[in-house]
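Hi, here's the filled form for the chain we discussed.

Project: internal
Contact: R.S.
Residues: 487
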Amino acid sequence: MKDLSFVQSNGLHFTGKLSFYEVIKGCLDRTGLLMPIYSSVALAYDGYAGTNILKDTYVNASRYVKSDKETIMDCNEVLTSILNIFSAVITQEKGIWWIYRPTDLKPNTTFINNTLDTEIVVKTNYNLGSQIDNYYPHHCDANQQIEVKGAISAYRLRYEYGFLDGFILNKDLVHTNTLVFDNWTVNPTNAGLIVNDPNDLTGLTMISQEQGAGVYLEIITSNSFSVLNGAVLNLKASLEVSQWRQVFRFRIKRSDGKYCDYNGSWNTNPDNIIFSIVGQENYGNFTSDFSFITQPIDNNCTVTITILLPLPIQTGEPNALCTVNKIDVTDTTQTESGIIGTFYTVSRIAPPSSITKENQTVFNGDSSSLLIGSLYKSDKTTLTETWNRTGFTENKPILQISAEDDLRVQRNAIKVFSGGIYGLLPYLSIISINNIVGSFMFTNYSYDLMTNKMSAKLTQLYQDEVGDIYSVTTDDFGNTVKPTIKG
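And the returned structure, exactly as it came back:
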């Protein structure tokens, strides 16, 4: 999959927001093996009431474009990142792709058939015995070996940021010849105030007109976007008038009922607007760039931008064609900080070894909507913040849970069993081996149909909870090192 770019089967780029399932399917379909995907991922974000987390969590498809803004990531990079986010693995068996979290496997595990949206229960517990005991399946060929690997005491998972150009998805106000603007909603009452030039399908052009005091004619409103507490918004617009001095007006509204006034402050007055004066007296066509910065937002919320009908700066001055050629909003706190990622570092308070696992990097996580790798709930608008494992009372970022999972599965020294087996066992199994303590999973195997023999490697798996994991989250300013072990 390293040689396969993450594109559609017809070669076109993926666009918009995709569910994790759609991303995974896009990667797997590129192999040409068009098989159904069964999944068992027992995680949920805060407030989740659905049944299929892979289909109800969304990401921006453009996150899988590299920092040069041109090179598409390969399917191996994309799929590996997603599996690491969920602490999941993937295998292919019986003409099916199986995705699951090893820590969640039970003797009878429920999987979702993502094609039919139905559930099936799969038996996963099997025993491997001895020929001496007349057990089937059993060891064979007298080549069994047991290797011991030390426990993991520390691990660091890195969330590599990718920055959106801005929150507004259709910043050039591209539209059809019937004035349909993607990612914007035209106020039908005032749609007639928009100038429709079928030869120019970008920008928003209106004819200014005098309006009474306190009159704000809403022309078009952006789709809402999510911001986090502390965000400082910077609205930028490219404006143009055909003559004289005109006043462009905008309304910035939050979902918690607050509006931004011209000083950048937030309060509940719906008459709050911000404005820009463009043009000169007795002057023709004039362009201007407008920039406005708000005070910090004091609550997690969503925000909309409404473009209002412009008006002449004073009574008696002529109306004019007024065009918003481009408009966007950014969060200055994120872009000016120099932070390029987040580290999720976990360690054991009482280290069982001196072993640290190699750092890994993922491309998505819980974060601000200015970050292109942010995760969205099923409405494709609301950001995820915290998650929990099914059956556990916890509220943590998903990448903290993922990092902690790596310590759980190797909480103590593990045994790696290898050798011949007479008989066939499913790859998707939790194996109990006679006279060896612990549960094991296949990590490698081959099967010879003629001899009915397997050559396999099984690795011990811990599924118990670990009570002494210490977790810390830090900003990544570009210096990546392995975590140190304290204790």
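Let me know if anything looks off before we file it.
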